[in-house]
Amino acid sequence: MRSIAVVGTGLIGTSVALAARSRGLTTYLLDRSSLAVGAAVALNAGIAGPPPEPVDLAVIAVPPAQLATVLKEQQDRGLARCYTDVVSVKARTRLAAARAGCDLSRFVGGHPMAGSERSGPFAAAADLFQGRNWVLTPSPSTDRQAIDLVLRLVALCGATPVLMEEEDHDRTVALTSHAPHLVASLLSARLESIGPATAQLIGQGLRDTTRIAGGSPGLWTDILGANAVAVAEILDGFAQDLGRALEALEQLGSEDPEHRRGGERVLGELLTRG
């Protein structure tokens, strides 16, 4: 593989471009925002604009709702021989791409398990994917050449490829990423109106718990919407546990010793599971 194009020069796209450039690949950068492309170019992530001829691989690094449209557009213009993406929801976006008429035989779904609460090209790093897992979701109809090219990209980024079914991936990230982000945001929102005195008492535990809430609300609305059913299933169980915890705390505040013992038992069970 000698050349790639990155469509979408945010955190992930620019990090892919920086990693590719560091390994000697000719890299082209496309984004509807000229400012984002300019920032990525200033970081030496690649060349602004489309390539003069099709590149080996195009990386579509846009939000989930835009994937099908952008993939179809770039395939129609002949941007690359093969295509992949970095979207964190696979089943619904692939279905949208199929409905849009994309050539899915030359497309490999991908999701690098790396990121940051920061966004934009200036948050990017060439080593962002070093030592991280990179999920790939090829189908039986995916061209072998496309799979090989994406595996080379993962390798040059220093990541480890993990093959998964799309639905398995989406259920997994609902638990490990998407639901935790929403919970962190809801917890962080409780701090909206605190005063200086309270702010002085915020420790590292709360900072760690709410750090990811700093992500882009627009992007995360898109991500959560694309994986809504799986996230809702996770949060339903969470809500049940939260309801039990609330009831236990109310019992612990009771004057009735029996109620207090029951609340202590339930709360202990919840904390022990955690």
In short:
The chain is an alpha/beta fold and 274 residues long.
Give your account of this protein's structure.
With 274 residues, this protein is of the alpha/beta class. It has 2 domains: 3-164, NAD(P)-binding Rossmann-like Domain (Rossmann fold); 169-273, 6-phosphogluconate dehydrogenase C-terminal fold. Helix content is 51%, strand content 14%. The chain contains 11 helices and 9 strands. It has helices spanning 11-22, 34-42, 67-77, 91-99, 144-156, 166-189, 196-199, 204-210, 217-226, 228-252, 257-273, and strands spanning 3-7, 26-30, 47-48, 55-60, 80-85, 107-108, 110-112, 133-136, 160-163. Strands 3-2-1-4-5-6 form a 6-stranded parallel beta sheet, with helices on both faces. A 3-stranded mixed beta sheet has the order 7-8-9, covered by helices on one side. α3 links the parallel β4 (55-60) and β5. α3 (67-77) crosses α4 (91-99), α6 (166-189) crosses α10 and α10 packs antiparallel against α11 (257-273). It is elongated and about 80 Å long. The model has no long low-confidence stretch (mean pLDDT 96).
The CATH architecture assignment of the largest domain turns out to be 3-Layer(aba) Sandwich
Distance between the termini: 46 Å
Q: Give me the oligomer status.
A: single chain
CATH superfamily of the largest domain: NAD(P)-binding Rossmann-like Domain
Strand order in space, largest sheet:
3-2-1-4-5-6
Helix/strand-derived category reads alpha/beta
Number of helix segments? 11
Low-pLDDT stretches: none
Might you state the CATH topology name of the largest domain? Rossmann fold
Could you tell me the strand content as a percent range?
A: 5-15%
Order of helices and strands: EHEHEEHEHEEEHEHHHHHH
Mean pLDDT: 96
- Biggest sheet details: 6 strands, parallel
Summed up, the domain count is 2
> What would you report as the Rg, rounded to the nearest angstrom?
22 Å
Instruction: Please report the first level of CATH classification, the CATH class of the largest domain.
Output: Alpha Beta
Share of helical residues: 40-55%
Number of strands: 9
